Amino acid sequence: MPTRFRKVKIDDTAYEACSVFDVNNDGVLDIVSGAFWYEGPDFQKKHPICEVQAIGGYHDDFSDFPMDVDGDGWTDIITASYWSPTVRWRKNPGVTGEEWQTFDIGPSVCNETVRFFDIDGCGIPEIFSNAVHDPQQYFKLIVDENGRGTGQFETIVIGESAAMHGMGFADINGDGRTDIILANGWLEQPEDPSQRPWKFHAEFDMGLASVPMLGHDVNGDGLMDIIVGQGHDYGLHWLEQRIDENGARSWIKHEIDMTASQFHDMQMVDIDGDGELELVTGKRYRAHNDGDPGAFDDIGIYYYKIRDGAFEKHIIDYGPAGEASGCGIYFWVQDITGNGFPDIVAPGKDGLYLFENLGNDEKEA
């Protein structure tokens, strides 16, 4: 039985990123999106963070990731956008209503969005910007002797050529180390973490790929496959990894869903509580304003159950913009209500929405 959701509109804002964390340290989760945070548990009380610049139909904020950057016990925000020459962090002042100060982390030109992954196992996620026209790099938080953030970062460049549009994390070759998926190949994490650059394998061409692309063994053959959406066109696909008798790797492209466009963000989540991961994604409404194929189509959020290489689509929300919601460039999935099912916070140019996961009758029974 499909999982049911209750849709709640939080605000009419047009920011495309969000996150969930305890902003004011009261023990209750809050929602952050763009220039504001919304106080839990009902998210009706709205507080300013700082001014976020509007640029050509977008906002200068393509992520709102939570991290205590300076080790003061208050969770800060990591942000960047396509136009910003740097990745930045906003300092949580610890006082509601006081403006958050913004500081540079490091340079990142033409940054489509930012993703976070603990690539070296240190316990703190590293910051990966999808720097479309620059070599892949990441920023590592420098901590003190007690493991607390110092507000300073180390820049580590692991690629040699332009990263292109698209990025993800997966152990492609099964060696136990997470690699970096890019639009036209993958960067192999070396055994020696000090080795630079990482070896690049130019094995496919994903086009204007989603951020992230996802690693998942779709058909259960023990090899890591790749799930990718077209960020600025129609199409959701998976690439099947094959290894021949000589150990050579190849990829076979399969269609998942060709009925929708602008699949920009996606996550693997056990959305229905059955112990299996589902693909959760949707349309980034007006991703290139009105310049993409399918820009004027209805928008929606979906989850796909995966069974032996087949994807079964379930609609969470679908319809005209203003009635239905897409999922922006950086949506958030977390059990906010405490019922054991992950909820979805969906930002976008169509507004900020919360989809409360009500589970399904079969699970609840």
From TrEMBL:
Keyword NAD: no
SUPFAM superfamilies (alphabetical): Integrin alpha N-terminal domain
InterPro entries for the chain: FG-GAP, Integrin_alpha_N
UniProt keyword Signal present: yes
Keyword annotations: Signal
Protein known as: VCBS repeat-containing protein
Organism, as annotated: Paenibacillus sacheonensis
